[in-house]
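seq:
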Amino acid sequence: MNNSMIVHIRNEADYEVAIERPEVLFHAEGGTPEAVERDTLSTLVDRYEDENYPIAPPTPLEAVLFRMEQQI
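struct:
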């Protein structure tokens, strides 16, 4: 029986389901159907997050301040 959870992530409800499933499959052995499912879902989640929660690059000032904090 195939319990694959691979679906298109079209909305927040799909997203919530999709982000929990890879945690269940975290220790799946490479090459198994579970590992393929985990990797595919992770890619779909990344894509959804990139499209719906973009992270703007820092301003030059923010970048300098961050780098200065790293030196402390």
